[in-house]
Amino acid sequence: AHGIALTNFRVATDVDGHDTARPAIRIQGTKGEIQVDGPAYRPTHYRIVRKNEADVEEHECEIPGQGMFWEADECARCLRDGKLESEGMTHEESVVIMETMDQVRKQNGLVYPEKIETTDYPVQL
């Protein structure tokens, strides 16, 4: 088995602002696909479409807030338990993701203002 993941900074998942451009995520396999309505960080709905079957399973996602609460919950658990690092997302993995995103930005000419990019602290705003 193998998988291919594609993403793009410039492809909008909600082109008209009314969630008509569905799905934001598609996971395809030999038996069908899972379609996830976006936004991807806070999915609202997903459906399971099985190959050669007319019925589609529809599922609503009851997600409070505006996203990132899973991360906040994990941070709170780590603080409560006296951990300096999450087992689910290590510091090493975080750095790899940041370095990858820096390369993507560099290759696409995306530059943030110096006050965002700086590693100096405190920052004079």
Question: How would you describe what is shown here?
Answer:
This protein is an alpha+beta fold and 125 residues long. Helices cover 26% and strands 18% of the residues. The chain has helices at 69-80, 91-107, 114-117; strands spanning 25-29, 32-37, 45-50, 56-60. The chain has a four-stranded antiparallel β-sheet with strand order 1-2-3-4, with no helix packed on it. The longest helix has 17 residues, at 91-107. The termini are far apart.
Short description:
By secondary structure, the protein is α+β, with helices and mostly antiparallel strands. It is built from 3 helices and 4 strands.
Task: Tally the helices.
Answer: 3
Kindly report the spatial arrangement of strands forming the biggest sheet. 1-2-3-4
> Main β-sheet: number of strands, strand sense, barrel status?
4 strands, antiparallel
Instruction: Note the beta-strand portion.
Output: 15-25%
* Helix fraction by DSSP (H/I, runs of at least 4): 25-40%
Approximate shape: extended
Instruction: For the record, give the distance between the C-alpha atoms at the N and C termini, rounded to a whole number.
Output: 51 Å
Identify the quaternary structure here: single chain
- Counting helices, strands and paired strands, the structural category is alpha+beta
Unreliable runs: none
- Average pLDDT: 85
| Count of strand segments | 4
Order of helices and strands: EEEEHHH
Radius of gyration: 19 Å
Tag the structure with descriptive keywords.
extended, 4-stranded antiparallel sheet, 125 residues, alpha+beta
What is the topological layout?
Elements: E1 25-29, E2 32-37, E3 45-50, E4 56-60, H1 69-80, H2 91-107, H3 114-117
